Amino acid sequence: MKNRINFNEVVTRDGFQNESLFIPTDKKIELINQLSHCGFSKIEVTSFTSPKAIPMLADATEVMQGIQRVEGVEYTVLIPNLKGAQRAMQVNPDELNLVMSTSQSHNFSNMRMSMQSSFASLAEVIHFVNQKIAINVSLSTAFGCPMEGYVDPRVVIDLITQFSDLGVGRLTICDTTGMANPEQVAQMAQLVTNLFPNIAFTFHFHNTRGMGLANLMAAIQNGITQFDGSLGGLGGCPYAPGATGNICSEDAIYMTQLMGHETGIDIIKLLESAKLLENMVGRTLPGQIVKAGTIDCLHPVLGNVQELMSS
Amino acid sequence: MKNRINFNEVVTRDGFQNESLFIPTDKKIELINQLSHCGFSKIEVTSFTSPKAIPMLADATEVMQGIQRVEGVEYTVLIPNLKGAQRAMQVNPDELNLVMSTSQSHNFSNMRMSMQSSFASLAEVIHFVNQKIAINVSLSTAFGCPMEGYVDPRVVIDLITQFSDLGVGRLTICDTTGMANPEQVAQMAQLVTNLFPNIAFTFHFHNTRGMGLANLMAAIQNGITQFDGSLGGLGGCPYAPGATGNICSEDAIYMTQLMGHETGIDIIKLLESAKLLENMVGRTLPGQIVKAGTIDCLHPVLGNVQELMSS
Predict the structure, then answer these.
(1) Does B258 contact A308 at a Cβ distance shorter than 8 Å?
(2) Which domain holds residue A96?
(3) What is this model's ipTM?
(4) Spans of chain A below 70 pLDDT
(5) Is B211 in Cβ contact with A240 (below 8 Å)?
(6) Does the predicted TM-score (pTM) go above 0.95?
(7) 3-state secondary structure (DSSP) of residue B248
């Protein structure tokens, strides 16, 4: 019996965050409402960051209030600090997703502070929330930092330990700029599941160097059962113009299903959402299944070939 | 100790075949000469098909005569029938690559004849060549046919057996339109290596549905050590407009190297060839590493972040 694999759809947060043209609030709500009926275990709806820093997600409150929640789907929101948590708590998310990097220079670039300060700031959020709501912590650059290169897995393990000591039971291990390879992913998966059997891990991959789905497969083979994905592969990498961003949800999910894993996701509905998204952003996205169709979309045998075959 | 993995570069045959604008003979030769110094075990130079059917490769003889061969690299050419073999033998290739499909409708579409007729025609070539030159047989649609869908692995096994009985020691198992998934690839790899321990198998993947590198990884995990790839991911799928074609050589090779396998390939030289190719065809190709760089191409910490870090 193969593991059930769950997916967390992050397109309206991680994907939209990289778009240059503002996507209207009602369009965001429309897409999330469609995604809610696809079978995701979780949807990362938006981010309660400073509207100045990320104008695209300035409508976080309106979006959270506007969507129709579906039972069985957790609606999570990204939180950078206490102020964000306080704003988010007013709209009753199912989970807060806190984030910090596992390398100093990436943390400084993204959070404008040291990893120590970030940890203290997130600890403050965790105490403030006081278990009234589930908390997930996302550890960025866990497989490599675009400025520093190699990230020692011990740094990742230390941070997991510290958050675990604060009562955090959910962590996401992020390959933020697509530096991981399947061998490294397999080792990380073994390491964290062995050391922290009671923590629910999500792995978050980017396809920046084309290895996203191979990394997903390596993680599945080594016991990881929850993954982030972005519809259509929407997103990008600030360090690699033209390269793709997050792994494409529908491609990742379809592969997982073909490999015999239950995902609970309706791939046909999901492909409709991917088409809606392409219309929304007005361009072709990196997702492949939306172009090629599922493998059971067969092509007709052409007339002249039929003649040949029957002659 | 991990298996050494060898790659066969097919861009100037499988990739160019899908291009609409003719690529001049001297440009083809220039690219092949560059690729010869990258460390490939084999290069599929061109195809001796009817110049009417594939005008792009009408200069097969001139290309084979114009390239500078490098020791350690096998130069192979695609052959559809006896006439092609006779033309090819005049330019002394290291290998003839014969091809037929494992599904009737795809074979009729591509070869204008039944699988039985194709087999008879290829058997004729094999007898004609009479072991004077190595022969590889490529079996198309072995993981699924775009018209018929499921292809029974027994059909593939039967064809391997028949070719093996004719003395063929090299076969390529092709996922011609990207219908394979990693589970299926793992099973096929186990099946063929167990049943035919003395045959040298190459696996040929397309990235039509985004699973190309995951399929490569599944094949490696199950004992396959030789793969086809196309520089830049050049190529496409006639059944899926907009979808990608063959797996991208440099992305596939780089992943294989990061996983700890010796490939003998100089990835930096290969990336230079990928850039030459992009200039040649005048557009951006699907390859990711050429956009994102290798993981050791680190980015500078920006001035304002440096200030923050030192304050």
Answers:
(1) no
(2) 6-310
(3) 0.97
(4) none
(5) no
(6) yes
(7) strand
